Amino acid sequence: MTAGLNWNLVDVIRQLLSFHFMVNALRAGTIVAVVAGAIGYLMVLRRQSFAGHTLAVIGFPGAAGATWLGLDAAFGYFGFCVAGALIISALPGVDRRNAGLGGFSEESAAIGTVQAFALACGFLFVGLYHGFLNGLNNLLFGTIIGITDQQVLVLLIAGTGCLVALVALGRPLLFSTIDPDVARARGVPTRLVSTAFLVLLGIAAGGTSQITGSLLVFALLVAPAAAATRLTAQPAVGLALSIALAVLITWMGETFAFFSPYPIGFWVTTLGFAIFLLATAYRGITDRAGRHPTIPSPPQRALSESTTR
Amino acid sequence: MNRRGSDVATGTAPGPDLAGVIHTAAGDSVAQPSHGEGMGPDREVVWLSGAAARLGGQTIWSDVSLTVRPGQFVAILGPNGVGKSTLLKAILGLVPITAGQARVLGAKPKVRNAAIGYLPQRRAFDPGVRIRGVDIIRLGWDGDRWGVPLPTLPWAHRSRAARQRVREVIALVGAQSYAHRPVGQCSGGEQQRLLIAQALVRRPELLLLDEPLDSLDVTSQASVSALIQSVCRCEGVAVMLVAHDINPILPYLDQVIFLAGHGAVMGPPEQIITAETLTMLYGTPIDVLRDHAGRLVVVGHQDLPFQQLPRPRHEP
Ligand SMILES: Nc1ncnc2c1ncn2[C@@H]1O[C@H](COP(=O)(O)OP(=O)(O)OP(=O)(O)O)[C@@H](O)[C@H]1O
Ligand SMILES: [Mg+2]
User: What is the ipTM of this complex?
Assistant: First the structure.
């Protein structure tokens, strides 16, 4: 590539946008980042990262299988990820009654078994489809080259549906994440909400896989969300921050991938990791600085005043 | 409305022979829930008649009959594992009632859960939970509505009312200084107050509190008990509260439900909280003393070996 990365942003953007494949990569990346940032934030709050990773890995046999059968890889990604979500939500223990406060204790062992099996199936499909090996790297580690207009359209439809569903689930989803017992008592169908969320997570993971590859989905799904939860404890702000960080690292990652010989998966993962480290360091510093002696007196007095009669 | 005065005067009189009201699973007698004149089951806050609950194939309790009226402060006592939490869950309709009848706020259990404030028996939030106390209280206000709150004009007054109410209950439980911190960083007692605020935020008609005084220090126990009692008095909310240590709530109690063996006995505290009754119910010597101010104090004998504690379970 003759173009060079420099500090003249306008020039960089002009170079990027002069290639149609790059325009498509940026479009697809943006869609995927917004969805992954939003769903990922809830996933981190619900402590379902492992389920998210498994769903992403399940996308790999899906894509490999679809290619083997001569279908569009996107069908494979979304089909397998959604099916995987339904399987995981049917596993006992994922929505365990009396799960701990503030999150789920998931049946990692069962989910891990599903994940291993998915990987094995992926390699089987790769084996069945000879001459496919060139694409293996892309399936696992992502690519910015060759994203078609139609792929962008599919991602856009899936992503929009995902976000609309997430907004519709909204408060009951947060409620059953933070306090499942009280949510259930209040009539929130926690089991249904949990399954619906896993399906959304499957769609997000399937979409993200198409950009970062199946193994590096975490870069977009977890890193921005984990950084956001460390930076703020307000759900709305955290969600916005998670989306913003995901979009930022996607744009930067795609730019670096364009100007360097290294794949996008590497760049997005590295940037995600860096942001996560920075956020963790920030948390550590503010926690230490904020450990002032707490002032315990006002509550007692307010309480006894309000209750004496 | 606070009917407590009349309840205590004319209310339940299970008679001195409490042993007769405690039932085995075979249950040969049914305690009659006490009714005032003209009070049908639908007028009571909670009305159970001969109710039984099963969990995992085991009958937890059966033949439980009880009545809770508006504005009453009722304690649920009993040894570990006897089914106190299960009783609250049955009232919420989370555990099915397999025999007998139940009415809660004039309907079948679960139908009117929106008017019930529930505080489950708690485990603590772990330190990693990055959500503020106010957010948790806010979820108690409208967490069961689909969608997200919209800050746009037509809904602005609604979310202003919500914020106002959340501020009110935070002040009520005295949580101002930590309500905006991540809840994982609050102490166990602070979390408990936030969760009590969450149970109160919707102005419930019935409060079901499962060991709310757990993990509170002695002065907090007293002030939280007083707070619950004042909510009960001032807003006519019926309160059913599970406790192991009854001393902090003794002064406020209208009725006591004692779960033991496989049934329940209900009555005013002066009849249940006696040395003979408690000793019989727990199967271990218990004294009820009066302090200099005339208040009751319940004292268990802790030097007994564990084996002598009653086993509440029997095969169904
Ligand atoms: N899901 C379940 N399946 C089977 N048995 C259960 C289940 N939940 C509770 N139990 C049993 O039901 C009994 C009553 O439980 P419950 O939690 O109501 O007791 P409790 O009176 O609240 O005790 P504690 O004072 O320890 O809180 C216990 O023996 C418990 O083992
Ligand atoms: Mg209990």
Answer: 0.83
Nearest Cα residue in chain B from A182: B118
Question: In this model, does residue B29 exceed pLDDT 50?
Answer: no
Question: Distance, in angstroms, between A96 CA and closest chain B CA?
Answer: 14
Token pair, residue B36, equals 């005032």
The residue whose CA is least distant from atom 3 of ligand 1 is B56
At B35-75, the pLDDT tens digits run 444 457 778 899 999 999 998 888 899 899 999 999 999 99
Where does the pLDDT of residue B311 fall: very low under 50, low under 70, confident under 90, or very high at 90 and above?
very low
> Best mutation site among B92, B94, B122, B131 for testing chain A: the one with the most A CBs within 10 Å?
B131
Domains of chain B: 46-308 (3.40.50.300)
Q: Which of B60, B281, B309 to mutate to test the pocket of ligand 1 (most atoms within 8 A of CB)?
A: B60
Inside any domain, residue A1: no
For residue A196, report the distance from its CA to the centre of ligand 1, in Å.
30
Hey, which bits of chain B come out as E strands? 46-55, 58-68, 73-77, 97-104, 116-119, 206-210, 238-242, 255-260, 263-267, 286-290, 296-300
Domain that holds residue A126: 9-308
User: Is the whole-model pTM more than 0.90?
Assistant: no
DSSP A181-211: HHHHHTT--HHHHHHHHHHHHHHHHHHHHHH
| B60 CA from centroid of ligand 1 (Å) | 8
pLDDT in tens, A221-267: 999 999 999 999 999 999 999 999 999 999 999 999 888 888 888 89
Ligand nearest to the CA of B120: 2
> What are the structure tokens assigned to B264, written together?
């329940």
